[in-house]
Each structure stands twice: as C-alpha cells, then as structure tokens.
Design brief:
Layout lengths: L9 H9 L3 H14 L1 H11 L2 H19 L10 H14 L3 H22 L4 H21 L2 H17 L7 H9 L16 H15 L14 H21 L6 H12 L3 H17 L17 E5 L7 E5 L5 E2 L2
Antiparallel strand pairs: 1-2, 2-3
Helix pairs in contact: 2-3, 4-5, 4-6, 5-6, 6-7, 6-8, 7-9, 8-9, 10-11, 10-13, 11-12, 11-13
Length: 324
Amino acid sequence: MKNGEELLSVTEVKNILKEKSREELLELLIESYKTIPLLKEHISVKYGSQDNIEKILEAYKNKIYNVFFPKNMKTQFKIGDAKKVVNEFKRICSNEKLTIELRLYYVEMGIEFTNTYGDINEAFYNSVVAMYEAVVSTINKQHDSEIYNNFKGRLKAVVEDTNGMGWGFHDELSNIYWQIKEFNLDEIDIDIDEEEVKNIKKYIFGRLEKRKDLASFGKNIALGEVVSEIVDADEVFIIRMDARCMDYSNDEEVDFISKRTGYSEKLIEIILWQKCCYEMENDYWEYEGKCIKCGNSKLYIKEVHNVDFSDQVICKECETEFIR
C-alpha cells in the first residue's frame, strides 16, 4: 500500500460531508479545531482579528529565531529546521503578504547568523539565497506596488548588509534584488549630473570627429547620435551596478551597451575609451603613490596621446611621466 492510500480522497470526503446535517458538520469542525493544532492556527489566521494574526506570525518568527539562536547552545544547528517552519506556516496561511514577511525574516536571520558566527558554508548560503528568491518571485507575481513598498527597505538592506560575505552570497542576492519588477530606477539615491553628461558627449564627439578610422563602422554613421546613445546606455549600466552594490568588468559594461543599442563592441569600446580620456583630462583618475623624481603625491593617470587604450602616470608638480 502506498503512503496515504489508507486515507479518504477529497472526492470521498465531499460525498460524505454532503450527507451530513449542518449540526453534524459544525460538531465535526469544532472537534477538529480542538484536536488539530494546525487547523486551529489556520482558522485563526483566516478569520481571526489582526491581533490574533500578528501573534501567530510572531510565534512562527520565534520558532525561526530559536533555530538560528537556540537558548541551548549545545543544540545542533540545522537550517532545514527553519525552512520547515516556513513551510508549515504556508500550510496554514494563504496571505502572501504574511508569507513574504516570514520568508524575509528567515533571510534576515541567516544574515544575522553569519554576522554572529562568521563565514558558514555554500549549502547554508544557497538556502538563504533560495528563500530570498522566493520572496522576490512572490512579490513579482502579486503586481502590487503596496506590497513592494512595504518591504522595499528590507529587500535592499539584505543586499547592503551582505557586502563582503563569501561564497558569492552578496552577488547572488544582488542579482535577485535587481529582478524585482516593481523596482524603479527613480528610487535610487544617485544624482545624475545632466550637464556633465552633456559635456562628455560634446568632448567625445569633438575628438572622434577628427578621426579617419571610423568609416569602417559604416559610411552613413551618425556620429552624434551614436555617441549620445552609447553614453546614455553606459549611464544606465553604471546606475544599475551602483544600485546592486556590485563591481563589474569592462566586458560586462560593453555587453550591456551592445545589447541595448545594437552597436558593435569595437565601436562601443572606442567611445568608452574617449569617455575615460575625458575623465583623465579632468583629473578624475588619481594614482596612489609618490613621484619618483620630486616625491610629490599629486599623481594622476593620463592617456598616452594618439594611442588608444594606453595610459601613464603624470606628476602634477614636476610633470614627470612614468608607466604605472
């Protein structure tokens, strides 16, 4: 006999209940309520007052907390026990907002556990990441900005609080965070200097306009339009990376711009190099160290003129140039 075959099917239960009187059904429900703890919690969550619901949620949070931080320190830690608490709550509660709350609490306790006891292991981090992914997935399915707004601060804090943790933990959480459909770039506390962007575009256009090697990218290339689109796409990319608190490679930057604009990687790299030249010309790229000639620390990275993708260090005091 397979597991569960000894139990009545849903269809059989329906047929039996149809034959029962209202009084018999009420008696069965009350008897079940008294003897089955999960049913008691399910009914309390479904029909109870807000105070009842909050107390039950708090009780489940305490169960999770006690898994991560048990009173008896000799208790063997098993993160699976915390996951069982979440699954049990899902059985009694169909309110997605409440399940998001408990899942996110699970994630937060995982982070607090790491901060308390140090680097754990890959399996531990995978479990926390999976729970965070479930939170984001549920929020995306709801299409409810109110739910997102209720949790957005904590969702972001999860990413910020894990910066520097091992096993790629922070990076995975950052990637999931960016998948939130309700996420709005306008919420990012980054000030875009439109005048600066305008100056960058003008600078790049002026330099490239004098070059004769751009014909290979197309005879009818509209240089001003190309520069503008690539610089704008790069601004979007940098904002996204900053919002995700992530480092990035030049390849990732170029790949993003290429997919967004449709321009070739070679053309994008040339324009991004001109942007770097603008930044170097305006002393944005400082170099740590001291001048080998005068000992001054006013060192800056500058482009090697007429050579793409090549730079050097120049002392602002004595103008000594040297390769870094």
